[in-house]
Backbone:
């Protein structure tokens, strides 16, 4: 009998009951705007920021409207503007070059390795071309952060980490987002906490934290932050920093706080699923699993593998056969963007040179979401389906 999978690749867990109760309380009192507080009430958003800062171990945290907004704000706070160049990953998703374009800057794309991390040799060669790196830990793969930070520090390049896929992950015990000058996170539905839309910016730098808060639209209410810098940090900037509104609201914060309290357990659930898939795919002829170094603490909310040096038509065949059995795979080698998936040369507003070594990898990258609504049995079944279809296409090639 041919096995089929019938689950949904886009269905996340429901919001925890505690989050629903907290959201109803906010709806009932009606004070959704973060600076709309009664008496000495502390807003849900301010509480969430304090809790997130404690979670990642940062001095400061600002909750904002999206992960893309977080990255654009970090760039603005570092005075990146029109005409500037920003180093970034060739292998990432559209909000990353989009954040760079939103401040009028242009990306310099850095290649990708077979580990699906940024190519540090390529980065080293390109470091003199910019003073900021927007580093995307794409699909949760964390590069050798010790080497990367040593190189960037030596070159005077500031690092902004895009942790949209690594909230809860770490390198050598240091949480993702805590190596660079800024860490940016997303709370969009498909990430590790879900408020529909939302994001965080963390930093230890009081000046940059103050600028970020002003940029996000604090007006002169910046003292109502529990995870903000002392008010002196605003003295020299408060009349010079434009308001580019992108605050988080108390409704989203109320939904997020119970999720944050539970995130370690959720990450462990993702990893059980990831390892079940990985074990099921191991030693499939023609399929390369992605190496995960010991220093990397992963959050397996998605899984990738390579069909390296396969003909495009054979990869498409695998994707179609898996789809026919209910398994939704994404391919980074497609010539045009499909749904959320795109490539560096799809972003026509950001000029790029062809990168042969990276193109070879991207042409083989297959990606799959792992929502927590999947059981471990689901993951074992999905792995059997992929294994069977990859094997049969590989053998007939
Ligand atoms: C989702 C995502 C972001 C942030 O996205 P928002 O939808 O703006 O929250 C940033 N980088 C990557 C790689 C992403 O996938």
Residues:
């Amino acid at each position: 009998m041919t096995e089929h999978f019938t689950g949904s690749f886009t269905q996340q867990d429901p919001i925890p009951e505690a989050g629903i109760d907290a959201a109803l309380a906010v709806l009932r009192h009606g004070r959704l705007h973060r600076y709309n507080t009664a008496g000495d009430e502390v807003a849900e958003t301010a509480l969430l920021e304090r809790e997130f800062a404690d979670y990642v171990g940062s001095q400061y945290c600002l909750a904002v409207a999206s992960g893309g907004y977080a990255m654009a704000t970090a760039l603005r706070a570092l005075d990146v503007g029109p005409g500037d160049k920003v180093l970034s990953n060739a292998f990432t998703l559209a909000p990353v070059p989009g954040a760079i374009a939103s401040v009028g800057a242009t990306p310099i794309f850095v290649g990708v390795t077979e580990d699906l991390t940024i190519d540090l040799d390529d980065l080293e060669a390109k470091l003199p071309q910019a003073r900021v790196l927007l580093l995307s830990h794409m699909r949760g793969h964390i590069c050798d952060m010790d080497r990367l930070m040593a190189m960037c520090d030596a070159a005077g390049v500031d690092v902004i980490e895009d942790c949209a896929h690594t909230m809860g992950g770490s390198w050598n015990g240091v949480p993702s987002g805590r190596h660079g000058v800024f860490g940016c996170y997303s709370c969009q539905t498909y990430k590790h906490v879900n408020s529909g839309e939302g994001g965080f910016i963390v930093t230890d730098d009081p000046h940059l934290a103050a600028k970020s808060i002003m940029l996000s639209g604090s007006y002169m209410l910046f003292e109502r932050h529990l995870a903000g810098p002392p008010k002196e940090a605003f003295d020299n900037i408060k009349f010079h920093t434009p308001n580019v509104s992108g605050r988080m609201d108390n409704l989203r914060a109320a939904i997020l706080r119970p999720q944050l309290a539970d995130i370690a357990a959720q990450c462990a659930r993702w990893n059980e699923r990831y390892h079940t898939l990985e074990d099921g795919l191991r030693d499939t002829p023609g399929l390369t699993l992605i190496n995960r170094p010991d220093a990397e603490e992963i959050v397996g909310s998605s899984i990738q593998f390579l069909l390296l040096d396969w003909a495009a038509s054979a990869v498409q065949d695998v994707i179609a056969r898996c789809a026919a059995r209910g398994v939704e795979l994404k391919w980074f080698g497609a010539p045009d963007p499909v749904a959320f998936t795109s490539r560096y040369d799809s972003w026509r507003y950001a000029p790029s040179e062809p990168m042969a070594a990276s193109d070879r990898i991207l042409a083989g990258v297959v990606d799959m979401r792992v929502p927590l609504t999947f059981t471990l049995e689901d993951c074992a079944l999905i792995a059997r389906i992929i294994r069977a279809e990859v094997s049969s296409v590989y053998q007939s090639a």
About this structure: Residues 231 and 296 are 37 Å apart (CA to CA).
